[in-house]
Each structure stands twice: as C-alpha cells, then as structure tokens.
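Throughout our pipeline, every protein is held as a single compact record rather than as scattered files. Nothing more is needed to write down the fold, since each code stands for a local backbone conformation. For reference, a complete record is included directly beneath this paragraph.
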Amino acid sequence: MRRFSLFLSLVVALGLSACAHQEPSRQEKFLAAAPRSILVVPVVNKSIDVTAADYMLSAASVPLAEHGFYVFPVNLVKRMLEDDGLSDSSLVHSSSTTKLAALFGADAVLYITIERWDAKYAVTSTTLTVGASYEIRDAKTNSVIWENKAQAVHQSNGGGGGGGGGVAGLLAGLVVKAVSAAVTKAAPDYMPLARQVSYQALHPYPGNGIPSGPYAPVAKN
C-alpha cells in the first residue's frame, strides 16, 4: 500500500510538472506581450512575380488596423528602411526585431513571407493561388508571440454561355471562356486574393488569428 501511495504521488508530481512547463498558446503569448502598435516590414517573396511583395505588403495593413492596432504606413516604413541600408527584405527579416522596432517606436513587428503566388492556365480556365506565412515578434524580447499561415485559391472559368443551344451554342460558349481565360492570363488580378489571405491569417481570436487590439471598436448591445 505504501509503495502504491509513493507511485501515485510520483505520477501526480510528474503531471503537475508537465503542466507547469506547457508551452503557452499563440494567443496567450500575444496577450502577454499586449502590443498596441505593429510595424509591418517589407515582405519576403518566394515567388517569381516581382510585384507580389508590394501587393501583399499593402494588403496586410487594413485588417490589422480594423482589428484595433496602430499600423505604421507601410510605404513610409519601406522608404525609411531603404534609406537606412535595408533595401533587401531578407536582410530586414534577419535583423534584430528590437532594433527595427526602435526605429519607429513599435511594440511588435509583423513579418510576412509569400509562399505561393502563381497561376495555372487551361484553355477555358485560370486558377490563381496566393499563400503566405505570418509571424509577429515582440519588440522587447525578439521572441515570436504569434504565427499563422493562410492560402486562397480562385478559379476563373470564363462564365457566360453561347448564343443558343446545340453544337453552335456550345462552341460559342467555349470561345467566350477561352477569351476570358486569355484575358486573365494577360493580367491576372492577385490583389483580391492577397487581401483575402491577410484577413484569413490575421482574423481575430477565436481560431489561429490574433486577439483584437486596444483600439478595436467596442461591440454595442
């Protein structure tokens, strides 16, 4: 009986120890840091589209501001970093978060990496895919206090039908779809997907998004 009691005490002690060392969730880390202002730095672009980084950079500001955080103007931030010798986004991401934040007086820094920014073309359809990873680091500790990933896909099949039924109508419909796909191929519009991905990743808690900030509008009953 005594041995059993000792064994039970050991199991309970180990369980309490495991709970004490349990890694806090991404929301708990974020709430503990309690940032009020977030600096969005230039985006690392893993795609071959040279315009992707600027699109994604501009898409991240709005959801952060709507969720209650002060967001530094992204174009001004980019220009100031370039003037400070940080024109390469990979170099910015590898720099000290504390030093970056100190340049602007920010509480935290948001780093975005584009993982997908591509289009797949068929005769009558075009599929656009945008995917990105997001990471927020605390200005005081340099530690990651939140991270998430999101991806959005849009398929354009041309829509619209042909004139009338039968073979002629079917062929006319295929021509319309093929023309529409060709137009999309010439100038694919990624911006709506970039906005969608940012909203998905940064959407407030519950889920994997960030908790609402101190300037978020208070819900009225």
